[in-house]
Amino acid sequence: MVKRDQIHGDIYFSEAEQKLITSKSFERLQYIKQLGFVNSQFPGAMHNRYQHSLGVCQCVTDMYNSVCRNNPEFYREGDLELLRLMALIHDLGHSPFSHASEELSDISHEERLGDILEYEKKNIVLAHDYDIPSWELLYQVYNGTGLTYMSDKHLIALHGFLDSFIDADKIDYLERDAYNCGVAYGRFDRSGLINNLTIVNQNGVDNLAITSDGVQALEGFILARYYMFSHVYLSPMERILRYLYCQEMKDLLPNGKYPDDVKKFLQLDDTKYIRRLKCLQSIPYVLIYDAEYNADMKHIIDRKLGKYLLSDAPRKNVFRKDMDDSTVMVVDTLLGSVKPCSEASPILKSIEYTSVHKLRYYAEASIANEVRSELIKLVM
Amino acid sequence: MFTVDDKLFFVLYSCYDGIVPARLLCYIYILQNMNVDFKFSYKLGSTGLVSDSLDGYTDELFSKDMVVLKGRKLYPTKRGYEFLDSIILTMYESDGLDWVFSILDDLSDSELYFICLTDIVVMDVLSSGGYKGLISQESNIKDILSTLSSEYTDDNFNAALKLMRNVREL
Fold it and tell me: Given CB atoms, is B134 within the 8 Å cutoff of chain A?
């Protein structure tokens, strides 16, 4: 099977992958937009999780081939097949409108994925023999839990290809989202990043790292993430629509939550309720304040005008999260020495813990002008 | 349940004197096994213990002006301290917390990580194979722990199990 993708060109799939791609759970992803409500501000953002999942499959293939080219001893039979299926399953548990509706689920994204994989187990077949069923192994390796996974350090290393600082998911979605939104600042040197991937053993586990020749590509990658979070993913329209959507869905859904039952859940996608959503017909709120987060300013505005406003203070670390103890390591191609990326690049040192953190206020359209006037007096 | 918002209480309480985020990750893993009404999901990544849900929650707390980062340590904000001061615990709950924190505060980062790792592995075997599974997989469990952590010794393994058993009884 071959699919023509707007980012990667032709992507080829094996018979086993085709079986999964043509399953009900995977085809459902064609009707879940990758970026939820971002298309309200960036109309081109109509791409879906189906395209993205196929793209991640290609990215992880390129990453693995590059790592094995740079580190032939890393290769193990069955790895690529496992990684490609992991790429295809990684978004199966997504709710309608992607991340916009996570609070409408009692079950976590990971638990739902496990249920869906078990439901689709006949369509998930690894040729390489493991001591547990294919769907269970995929779940363990993707989820980072389970005895088979934890007893094999190589599987722990493979987990990093789909979930780490530089993973196939991020590499695909950044470029795909930038392309579809029509923004230049989300683009980065994908080839430079992938071709310079290597492996470094940290605390007994192989981790993805980058050679010194790829540091500039890594800088571009992190900056692309910063710009995309700042201007696209956390955009004001997306945030208010996400809020309004969740309020409306609490009334539309039985018990205000998505169903736990996997068959019922798989019937849900973006199209199910779209015509009933009032928030998509007209938004009753107007954005009247949008700035970098400032706790003192928030306190002042909340105290004086809080009862007239909806506030939103989204925050996202673009590289190292607050909880991260580790970082991307850089291998010097000339000396063979290994050091943290912040020591290899002043740009990375200055942005490694940077977060996008905004402070926004929305007012009901009927009073927006008056409230805006009062707010201007407070902030000036 | 300890308070009206156990999740917020335990995160802020752990941050009271400032805590490095990586330690908070381990503290919350251990504390959520007490009689509380929240549970963050954890996984073992290639770089160690990871909890995307706890990470997202701390982002929320930043947004709500409950925590602040100072010099790479997390602290409650004034608002966060006010919340903590508003919580009244029973003597039993207070003693239990004091006991747990007195132990956790004295452990090194690697020891904390080892306790969490031990519990993740043991609970996984227990959930899939029951107590018979624990017995049959004992040597496999010890192999995994000794491979993934330099803190493995039989004494540390038994101490980790005992600590988690006691935490669950609180």
Answer: no
